[in-house]
Amino acid sequence: YRLGHHEATGVLTICAQLARAEVFVLRRGAAVVGTDELARKALIARFARLASQDLSLVFEGGVTGVMPVGATAAVGLADWSRAHLEAQLDGALADAIVRELAGVRLVVRSDLAPVAHDEADRRMLVAMAMPRRLDQIWPLARTPRFRLLSFVHFLRGIGALDVEGVVAEKSSPTRFPQQLPVDDRRVAALRMLGIEDEADLDTVKRAYRRLARALHPDLQPEVDVVRKRILERRFAEITAAYETLT
Fold first, then answer.
1. C-beta separation of 173 from 165 below 8 A
2. Whole-model pTM?
3. By the 8 A CB rule, do 70 and 138 touch?
4. Which has more pLDDT, 148 or 73?
5. Short-list 149, 137, 145, CA closest to 238
6. 32-55 pLDDT, tens per residue?
């Protein structure tokens, strides 16, 4: 993530135990390879395989003499890192994060803060620009519970989230749930759409339409493949939530 965030150029060598070293050429924070989509997908698969192992990394910055001639396909390391970490979140991990972080204040490190891809990202980053608890961040971020927690998990994974203290002042009336009942699909769906328990059908429809406009991958043709995967997953989540409520 840091090499991507700082737009590093050079050669990254990754060594896994009992395996040969793998070499990646970076240009402005992206690993370059080949000229087509198949090459990109193969590179993403290599990253995913390596991420599951114990690794040692060596980066030689500023090395440009080994740039592949004519290579036009690339995978941004920062975006890939985010997609990979956010995809790890499920209901059990989300509840564990809430329990672990209950009562502590969180703040994003400005030197590692990711680029905001959309308005929801911007609101979450603004909400975490100063130390706040999860129950204080959530109403400011105005985003579904699962998306906020996936963002928090990503920030923790890249070392961009600092913890300040263990107890804060009394919270506002809006409370972040300590644990979501695993058997209550309606509550889970409401949280996914970011609406209150007493919401009527019209409110559900408005919330879904608003999120669908923001997340439908076909409405954002300019995004890269990694970002499109994130949008597809989130759109599927809100659609499933909407179907549960209607």
1. no
2. 0.64
3. no
4. 148
5. 145
6. 887 777 888 888 888 888 887 777
For 62, the token pair is 């500023």
User: What is the spatial distance between Cα 77 and Cα 59, in angstroms, rounded to a whole number?
Assistant: 14
> Model confidence at 171, in pLDDT bands (50, 70, 90)?
very low
Cα dihedral sign for 197, 186, 242, 145?
Answer: positive
Taking the C-alpha atoms of residue 63 and residue 58, their distance in angstroms, rounded to an integer, is 13
Tell me what percent of the residues of the chain surpass a pLDDT of 70.
87
pLDDT (0 to 100) of residue 177: 45
| Residue length of the chain | 246
Token pair for residue 100?
């672990």
